[in-house]
Amino acid sequence: MKQSKKIFLSILFICGTLISCNNSFKSSQNFKSSFAIVIDSETFNKVEGSVLAYKNMLESEGLKVVIINNEWSDPNDIKAKLKDLYNNKPRLEGTVFIGDVPIPLIMKAQHLTTAYKRDESKYPLHIAAVPSDRFYDDFDLEFNFIEKDSTRSLNFYYELSENSPHYIKSDIYSGRIKPSVSEGDDKYELIKEYLEKVVALRNKTDLDFLMSFTGHGYNSEDLNAWTGEKIALREQFPQLYKPESRVEFLDFSMAKQMKPFLLDRLQDTDLDIALLHEHGAPDMQLISGIHEISGVTESIENVKYYLRSKLRDAKRRGKNLHETKRHYVKTYGVPEEWFEGAFNKEIEEKDSIFNYNLDIYLDDIKLIQTEAKFIMFDACFNGSFHKDRYIAGEYVFGKGSTIVAHANSVNALQDKWPDEMLGLLGVGVRAGNWAKQINTLETHLIGDPTFYFRCHLGFDYNKLIVYAHNNKEVWQELLESDHPDIQSMAIANLFDPKDQEFSKQLKDIYKNSEFFTVRMECLKQLEKYNNEDYIAVLQLAINDPYELIRRLAATMIGNSGRDELIKPLLSSIMNDKYSTRVRSNALGSIDFMNPDEVLKQLPEIMQQYSYMSHASELKDYIIKRVSRNSNKVKEEYEYIKSKDGKYKYRMLNIKTLRNYNYHYMVPEYLTILDDLEIEEELRITMIEALAWFTNSEYKTQIIEKCNQLASSDEFSSELRTEALRTVNRLQAHN
Fold first, then answer.
1. pLDDT (tens digit per residue) in 594-617
2. Are the CB atoms for 235 and 229 separated by under 8 Å?
3. Whole-angstrom Cα distance, residue 156 to residue 96?
4. How far apart (Å, rounded) are the C-alpha atoms in residues 380 and 409?
5. What is the pLDDT of residues 92-135, one digit of tens each?
6. Torsion of CA 443, 446, 449, 452, to 10 degrees
7. Residue 62: which residues within 8 A CB-CB, separation 6 or more?
């Protein structure tokens, strides 16, 4: 990799010395950073020898290791110790929680997740709250204690304070060494064996084989989305496209049942990284759907299988089986005899086996030996480490060579950037130092966060990440790197809401960069500025060659609501017909734009695309959609205000606004906030819903109104607190 001499000199000044990626330090007297092992007393007593071997290994690499061992009764005690280590020398760079270390579960912070929006007033704490170690590794976040769980002894519940920063920027990295434990397992033995594996494999892991798998229903099974990632990974891991290296891209549609082949590939001893893009749950990975076929006989058999499954499901739910049959016969025009065998023992068993072989379950993993050193689970709940058994834990603490996994403790958004800066793993960056660049509330490393792949660059970016995080000169130099993910890391570290000149620089980088991933990082950071540079780039991004940029730009336009973005959005709907996910997001965003402006600007766009065969049909569809949605939104607003409407439906209409930001209605929504004739709980919920209008063109008006409410003695303390929370959320990056 080419780097300017000035870059090296700048980083030498920051880090004190130039460090090889392999065996960073030989002498334990030359520590440049530290690492904390947080462990409960009982676990330490059971696995002390293995913990000390892990400690010695890390110290041989230059990390001063501090073991914090206690019978933990308060997560704040742990956070205080970590913060103290961070503020002393050598600086703390990360931590790992081994065994029964308290698990913070967070309320009132769903905006810090990618997708989690469970009704916190409806569900119990252990379901509504988000398990998150951001409590420990982001020292600026502030929390209010709620309670300790009386039956789940590790669970401690907090809410994010209204005065807290409302964005995540982890100061250190963290990981969890907490096995997935089934009946008959000895969790201490699993931890012991795992630590022994980590030590044994250290410095034996070159990165030369990456496999990416895409499961059933992921990203709407859009081939443009699937293809775009392949090009981006080519940028991020150039070394994998040379002779003697391997890159493999798999899709569920490649086989009638992909599960056996995927399990085989995960046991390939050469495999280093596995990216698993799929849907999931704590106890399963959704791999395949019903295979699409063109043969008549097989197609009929597929339909029969589907109908039998629906009839069995109806029986389980206590529904009328005769009515269920009638419904499907009428809906699909199928003969009633196609339901035959639904409750035949032999056929039912055969269907059950077929269904089981579509997906991966916990017990499947227990039977295999997984070899990928790093696995990304881009799925909901696969990283639910607060449960006794969970998918990521089954891989990491099972047989084989898997060291660390990146996974989500709750559900996660499909339309996110899962591979952001992933190429840093290819230049020797520790898994933890990569993960802390992209942390959300739900993302976690399961396993050893200090893990890294050997590199041969003669330069250690880990020390740069630890010590140069506030040095703008160094990061500006690294914008010249020929590696896109080092550029992206520099861009992320240079973001400063007070530095409007950098906003202009981002716009220029976006316009001139050849790298998909660098342009995507520019767009992501510009979104935080939410200024004219951002709007200018959005109008370009909706037509970017990279499908992910187009897809996210379509959503971002809907999050803004500005009239000047209507034309590019309509053009996307017309012109990007075969990018399923982009068009879906663009149509969704049209619903949030001013309907009068959409209908006003539509004829000009339709004239531009009049040559398209589907133009007239699509025009009629958009007109009907916009008119229908506009009427619905106004009716729902009137229903919220109505004293005759049912309370629970009025509340539901308000909560819907968290996902559906109808910007043009904000002036009307604001009138609800200080209307004393409307129930206070509804007004408080409206205040909270408006906090989700993060980049709305009406954001300033929302902030002004909430500031008025927060400073008025006319309202309750609960309402004023929620108003302050909304202000701080909307000003998170100001």
1. 999 999 999 999 999 999 988 999
2. no
3. 18
4. 7
5. 999 999 999 999 999 999 999 999 999 999 999 999 999 999 99
6. -100
7. 19, 24, 25, 30, 31, 32, 33
